[in-house]
Fold each of these.
Amino acid sequence: MSAGRSDTLLSVENLEITLGRHGAWSPVRNVTFDVKPGETVGIVGESGSGKSLSCRSVLRMLPPGMRVTGGRLLFDGRDILRFGRGELQALRRTGVGMVFQDPFSSLNPTYRVGSQLAEVLRISAGLDHRAARSRAIELLDRVEIADPARRFSSYPGELSGGMRQRVMIAMAIAAAPRLLIADEATTALDVTTQAQILKLLRGLRDESGMAILLVSHDIGVVAETCERIVVMYGGHVLEAGPTASVLRTPGHPYTAALLRSIPTIASAGHPRRLAAIPGQPPEPGGNLAGCPFAPRCEYRQDACEHLDMQLSPAGRDHDTACPFAGPGVPPVPGPLPTKATS
Amino acid sequence: MGSGSALAPAAGGPASLAARLAGRARRLTAGWNIETRMGVVIVGVLILISLLAPLISPARPDTISILDALKGPSLAHPFGTDYVGRDVLSRTLYGARIDLLVVFTVTYIGLIVGGLAGMLAGYFGGWVDSLVGRAADSAIAFPFIILVLVVITITGSGLRGIGIGIILVGWALYARLARSEMLSLREEQFMIATRSLGYSHWRSIFRHALPNVIRSSLIYSTVDILVNLLVIAAMSYLGFGAQEPSPDLGGLIASGQPYLLNAWWITTLPGIFVVLFGFGISLIGDGLSHGDVSVGIR
């Protein structure tokens, strides 16, 4: 990889993803964010907000029928959308590692976990059989799997969800990628395992200097792991910036409403209804003009339907796409939301 | 002693190989249930005796002896003789040998061709899928007997024509099966992961998808073998199969039919063979489809 023209590892600029040939619907519109080397960036958003698609497009792995129809994806200053076969393969093998959500289908049930891990090492790192085997055992040890030499010969069905996710992480980092994309990597795990996996990811980042792009619908997971946070809704980035700033002084009504709807220990004893955002997320299939959150927004104005959804600093340390309610949204008091187990 | 120690590893080679094979066989059969075990024993014995036909049959299958025609079971002819005095046991063994060879070849060529086409169709989709899908539809829609008749007019009578006919139709079911398995497999995260790891399509298909796709095809093939054996027997019975004097099961049954009332033994043994084989194969298929059996493809 060349040194790159900037100090940005991954740069997503005005990304637009469209389903179908005639541009019937764009599940991702105008998404912009950066990941710097060694940095952990979190993307939060609910199902259908476009966060997973945005990440998949980084490896050019969109589902059939979907295409990138606008914007640029730069990895190390080079345009991923213009990559040829060989460059794309190199990007997938050694540039970016990816961990998926479901630990129960993420490993091939017909092969031993060790041989799947060793296969990655042979293909991507070019090791021979023997070297791949010993390196695979080292990696299993590194992702804190007990008795790695014995687990090498286990089939995926013999491992717990957390262990499988650890193996998956080992496969993703086997070729020492510069960016690890964790797409809902802890969502299917129980809270204790989730905290362990997040700790493991942080440890791996500190050790290797790789950047992590953590996708989650759990704002607590992102809050405790990421330096910067990107809030997505309806295919748009609504707010982005340093985690503490975004969570303490949200500039977008959606972020503020999300934060208010997190139950706290203090609220547990009170017979008060959990705060919720009224309305429903946008239906897939049609794009509304302007701000996608407008129909549910308590600060809604007529101009919201004509917003161009550009991020701009709204008098805070971070950017938001909402020019109206920003200063009016009350700061969130108290500590940042985190998982109870950490 | 120097030469002795040099010989020792060489002598240990075959022994350790045998031990490894035995260990492998034990591991392979460890998860088999009772149906599978019984089926494998029955089918195994039938295959073994038909393979050993030249060694164990009491006479040549085509030695005619008019004086011994239509003799009942005796020491010389345990299952009697047919209408020109040929030994029924020998003819059954030789006939089964040919039929089994044809039926296994034909079934597994169909499995390989159809499985391959179906996997590619399911994996790549698009025009590959349309092409394979249309071809499979036409193969299945075409009346089988007419297809075989057409093939036989080209190749001439004999098992070859029947075999080609069966392959032309048989691959299509495996293609459909493999395609549908591949369609659901493609969405599994480990298959998506093979792409995110930068593996080639061929590695994804043949190393990662194949072992997961093949299982249902293998189970189906146990039924298919039986169907194909019956089809071969039926077509031979109709006279399209092996031509006299070479024996095959359907032809044997057909040749015994006129004497059914006074020489029951001619049709009995080939009949029993077909029924036993079918029983054994069904047991294997049943056992495998119960799902707790490892197919042994790893």
Amino acid sequence: MAVDGMVASDFLEAPPRVSEWRRFRRVFLARGVVVFGLVVLVLLFITAIFAPFLAPYDPYLPGQAPSLAQPSLEHPLGTDLLGRDTLSRLIYGSRTALEVGFISVAVASLFGVVLGILAGYFKGAVNIIIMRAMDALLCFPMILLALVVASVLGGGIQNVIIALSIATIPGYARVTCALTLSLKENDYVLAQRSMGSSDIRTMLRHILPNAFPPLIVLLTMQLGNLILAEAALSFLGIGIAPPGAAWGGMVNDGYKYLRTNPVLSFAPCIAIMLVVFAFNMVGDGLRDALDPRLRGLL
Amino acid sequence: MTTYIVRRLLQALVVLVIVTLIVFFVMRLLPGDPLLIYVAQSANIQAMSPEVLDEMRREFGLDKPLMIQYVNWVGGVFRGEFGQSIFYHEKVGTLMLERFPVTLHIGILALIIGAVFGVLAGLLAAVRRGKWIDKVITPLTYVGITIPVFFLGILLYYVLGLKLGWLPIAGYTSPMEDFWLSMKQVIMPVICLAVFGLAANARQMRSAMLEVIRQDYIRTAWAKGLGERFVITKHAMKNSLIPVITLMGLGVGIIFGGSVLIETIFAIPGVGRLLVSSIFGQDYVVVQAITLVIAVVVLLVNLAVDISYGWFDPRIRYG
């Protein structure tokens, strides 16, 4: 049963099958910055989950310590105008950042992916209506759109989430539409349709799963961008209501005392930057591990 | 090429109509009656009888159906009439003519610096891949695309303005009035707005260049005995610039978004600060006008980018 021109040793020397998971892990963890990003994110989640145990003081109660104290052993990052411990507020701020980031990404990607898949699948009028509307939304710089929507709706964490979601829907829609357009040309989609599979079934069972890898990468990177955008909004004074702790708001509060207490603004700034960097790097690593062909596209 | 341009123009027209619809209706969804907000800020509301309010409503055209109001508004915009600011008691058009040049001055400088230095940095990193210069530039680009604009602003403000005292920390002067003071004042804002674009361009340029350098025609150019400078600038750069052009279109939107933050930090009387103060002052006529103008600028720049893209890369036209 030997194949023509081949001997047994050819088969023996074939590379051993590497499991998908191991290959993924190897590529994903190959770069130092990606591992660094992953560590930052793990620490961020731990901080957010165990905030009440990690924070040395109450982050909301004013007057616990002298106002605007310089960093010391009791208050490693000093205190703000109301005598609240900066480190404790920083720790609680991670909750706001993650809450806004995850909920807005979930909402925006849900709407964006549905719109994108419909536009890509049905083409014609559906495509024109959806994609031109998305193009129109993309004409507004993200911060600007979120700012205007948040101001129309009024402050508060839910409204910030709604504003940021609306501002980021077009990104998902565009990517999903492009993916759907190319995926639906595959023979297996044609085969499904010839077997009488409904449009919805084809979209959900055959197109969506294949669009997942790039979408996961996009989602990860968007998490960082949304946390950044939320910080920018609360820096401008729109967003989380006063007693709440948001990093952007802390930067804004501390900004007036930059001359005497620079740490008040710099500490949350560094936290924001680290987290955004981490999400970007992990997104990069995921992209390389899931599908290197996406380089340059996402 | 002509069909491609015509198709793009038609698309842009549709998008423009949707943009105006969004701007108009988002503002109309404002909780509360725009007239009452206007009245509450210009006079005391108790003194007005319902008849006077109805009279004003008619005067502003607010009694007509929404669609008619929309058409009237768009008509006004085309004649350059954006309405009257509630807060500044000035025509919005005049207000924007004062503020836009400031933002454009800083924004265009940032765009140019980001493009020129970004392309150069990416080029250097690609040509000297793996050498020390690449090892310096590439990590810096990562920092550049992740650093929040306001962090960079505050950092420069603190170091160059407060600690070293090299640059003025606030204000804006027209270069016509006092060129040197103007230069000094715009340095920090321009750096802040340029960094993201610079880093993004450098990254895009580096990866595009590495892609192009591998191609056969580049090997041919080397084999012909052409010098490095010639191969890189005449052969490789042309094709690797194409993806960078798209980023320019994106850059305009990002710079407008960033100017909202930067103008707040450095107290620059540009359109970004006007927008923020109008949002807080519920001066919806101004907010409406500014968002519309910025969106249209972004739309036009992207249209220009798309058309030039088709010209540079014929494959796009037939796509």
